[in-house]
Structures are given as C-alpha cells and as structure tokens.
C-alpha cells in the first residue's frame, strides 16, 4: 500500500517538475524571440544587453506558474487534513523509490518541506527504526553487544540495499561471525556530504551515549558516498570534541570516490559545456541535480569545499585536505569490471562509477593522498559498483579484516 505521505510528496514533486519544465520552455521561447529581433542582434554587436521580450507569451507563462502555485496550495491543504491519520511505515519498494528521488533532488525536497524528504535515522536488521534511547535500543536490539557496526549506504540507495539478493547481508554476517551488533543508516543522499557528515557525527554521539552497554569498539562501513559521509563525520567529531570518535577502531570503504566519481565529472563537463550555448543552456539538466551529486565531482567533505562556489562552473579541485583520523585502522576495497585490474581499461573505468585510483585514495597531490598500508587495500576483478554491497568474496574480506 502507498502511504498518504508518499502520495502527497509525489503530487508536490510532480507540480515542482511541471514548474521547472515551464521555466525551461519559457527560457527557450525568450531566446528564440531575442534571436529573431534584428535590434537585439545589433545590441549584441555593440555590447548592450538585449531587452527581455514583452508580449502575450510572458503573460501566458505567468498565468501557468500562478495556476501551479494555487494547485500546490490546494494539494497541501487537502493532504494536511488527513496526514495525521497515516501512521503506516512505507513499503520497501516505496522506500527505495523515495531514496532514489532523494539522491537526485533531495536538497530540493528538504528545502520545499516535501514529505518525501528522508530524515537521517538508524534501523536494525529487520528494518525497524532504532531511536537513540536506551529502552528503545533494548526493545529493538535485544542482546546488543559492546561491539557496534554502522553501515552507511551510497547515493540514491537505502538501508534495504545492503540485503541484496541473498537472505543475509554484511551486517547480519558480522553479527553471526563476530558478535557485532549492526545498525543501518538511512539518510537523504541529495544533501551536501558535509551536512550529512555533521549530522551523522552528532547522531553517533547520541547513540553511543544511549547504548545499553559500554561500547568497546565502533566500526563504520560505507559504500560509495557512504564512505565520504563517514570521513566527513570523523572530521566534524573534532570540532565539538565528540567522544564517539574515541570508540572508532576500524572503518571500511567499499568503492568510495575519495577523489571524485567519473560519472559526476562527466555530467559536470556536459553541463558546463551546454551552458555556453544559448539554445542548449535551458536543457543543461545537470545544473538541476542535487548538491550531493555535485559534491561527488571532486569528493567534497567539508562546507569549505562548496561554500561560495558555483558547482556548475568549471573550477579546479580546491578541496581542503582531510587526512584519515588517527587511532583508527582504515580498509579500502575497490572493484574493476575487467578480468585484470592491471588493464588500462580497468584502471580508467574501474567499477563503472568510480575509478580505481579514487577508490584507493590515490592522488597526485601528496596532501590529498590517503596513506594506507598495502595489506589494508583489496581490488577485486569482474565486479561493478553495486556488486560490492552483496558479494561473497567482498564479505569474506571484510569479515577477515574485522575479526
């Protein structure tokens, strides 16, 4: 069953998309009108900004936008009267759709108070929400141990993706093999990585303080963007001096784009190129993607990496170097779709989304390079980016490292 909140959020998002398409159509229409006006061409030659075209088309677009705004107000008023009656949890398939939408436009969903926006929270292996309250933890996690692992998913995914195609998952395997209690983080992947990192840092602190037994060891496992959120959280733990970082003994990164994702770089290049041409500029849809996706171009971890910078303009990698936190052992896993990781194709393509050098933390700049021991890094052949979530050889390696 689809929840009322999902229907409400979907209706609002559909109206937002319609408004966006209307704006693109209007921009294209205005460009064409300016081009066919010989006076505007003359102004271009002498360096004078062309006047905005006036006429019935401008009035028509204003009427459309006003109508859509009225429709949204009506939708909000209608659903507000019944939303309090809807207490059902979303079905897994609905949760996964919401997670994908949050990855693409999650920052917009949050800014517009859309019910589809995901709030950061933890879940247990049964998919139940676990609040940072001692009694609630005991009820949701009976027999919680002193060893805790938190699994952090990647862009457009949710906690449900750790299960993969098998009955078990990495979290339950760690619990069976080593007695480590698993928690699964769910969060809005469309928000800036630094914002999610800061929030995760505080939520880890709250969870450690509420844990029913003394925590001897905290382990963090991040897939793709999840690994960057983990590194950001570790950095922000030092600002207010949160004590959870003292419990962090090991961290595992599965295909994390420490120095950017190839697909995000290609999307940015296409967007910046299209913006240089008048007729193509309105259709440069990459400029409308989420802040989280844009952070993946270089692998931004901190607020300083994106504040005051137009992410759609061509700009060099000006990230502040973020070293791996001392006192924690860090493990890296990368994948290549080819038969040999030494092949040129495998090195360039990597796991289809993340190149090998980025997943292993390599960088030409020594300040940005992540220093790890060779035995703490593994590269697997014939695996793609999502295979890292649910693959026996990957799980076996993580189980060995965390034994």
UniProtKB/TrEMBL annotation:
Task: Tell me where on the tree of life, at the top rank, the source sits.
Answer: Bacteria
Tagged with keyword Endoplasmic reticulum: yes
Query: Main location per UniProt?
Result: endoplasmic reticulum
Report any Pfam family annotated for this entry: PGAP1
One CC-aspect GO term: membrane
Question: GO molecular function of the protein, one example?
Answer: hydrolase activity, acting on ester bonds
The entry's localization annotation reads:
Endoplasmic reticulum; Membrane
Q: Which InterPro entries match?
A: AB_hydrolase_fold, PGAP1-ab_dom-like, SERAC1
Q: Which UniProt keywords apply?
A: Endoplasmic reticulum, Hydrolase, Membrane
Residue ranges that the Swiss-Prot or TrEMBL entry lists as coiled coil: none
Domain GPI inositol-deacylase PGAP1-like alpha/beta residues, every copy = 147-269
Under the heading PANTHER family, the entry gives:
PROTEIN SERAC1 (PTHR48182:SF2)
Specify the protein name: Alpha/beta fold hydrolase
- Source species: Marinobacter adhaerens
């Amino acid at each position: 069953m689809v929840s009322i909140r999902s229907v409400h959020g979907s209706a609002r998002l559909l109206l937002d998309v319609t408004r966006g398409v209307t704006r693109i159509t209007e921009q294209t229409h205005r460009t064409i009108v300016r081009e066919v006006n010989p006076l505007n061409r003359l102004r271009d030659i002498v360096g004078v900004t062309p006047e905005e075209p006036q006429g019935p088309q401008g009035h028509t677009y204003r009427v459309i936008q006003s109508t859509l705004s009225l429709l949204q107000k009506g939708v909000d008023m209608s659903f507000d009267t019944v939303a309090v009656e809807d207490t059902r949890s979303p079905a897994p398939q609905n949760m996964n759709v919401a997670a994908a939408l949050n990855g693409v436009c999650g920052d917009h969903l949050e800014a517009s108070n859309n019910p589809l926006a995901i709030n950061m929270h933890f879940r247990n292996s049964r998919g139940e929400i676990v609040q940072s309250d001692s009694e609630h933890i005991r009820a949701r996690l009976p027999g919680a141990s002193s060893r805790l692992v938190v699994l952090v998913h990647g862009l457009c995914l949710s906690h449900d993706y750790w299960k993969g195609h098998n009955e078990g998952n990495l979290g339950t395997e760690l619990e069976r093999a080593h007695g480590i209690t698993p928690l699964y983080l769910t969060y809005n992947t469309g928000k800036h990585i630094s914002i999610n990192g800061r929030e995760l840092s505080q939520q880890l602190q709250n969870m450690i303080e509420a844990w029913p037994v003394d925590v001897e060891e905290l382990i963090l496992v991040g897939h793709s963007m999840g690994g960057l959120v983990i590194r950001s959280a570790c950095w922000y733990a030092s600002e207010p001096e949160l004590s959870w970082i003292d419990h962090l003994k090991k961290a595992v990164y599965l295909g994390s784009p420490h120095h950017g994702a190839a697909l995000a770089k290609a999307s940015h290049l296409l967007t910046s190129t299209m913006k240089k041409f008048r007729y193509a500029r309105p259709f440069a849809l990459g400029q409308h993607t989420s802040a989280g996706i844009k952070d993946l171009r270089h692998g931004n971890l901190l607020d300083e990496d994106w504040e005051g910078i137009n992410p759609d303009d061509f700009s060099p990698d000006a990230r502040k170097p973020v070293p791996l936190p001392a006192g924690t052992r860090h493990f890296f896993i990368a994948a290549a779709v080819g038969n040999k990781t030494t092949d040129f194709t495998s090195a360039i393509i990597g796991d289809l989304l993340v190149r090998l050098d980025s997943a292993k933390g390599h960088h030409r700049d020594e300040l940005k390079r992540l220093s790890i021991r060779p035995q703490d890094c593994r590269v697997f052949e014939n695996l793609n980016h999502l295979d890292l979530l649910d693959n026996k050889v990957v799980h076996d390696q993580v189980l060995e490292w965390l034994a």
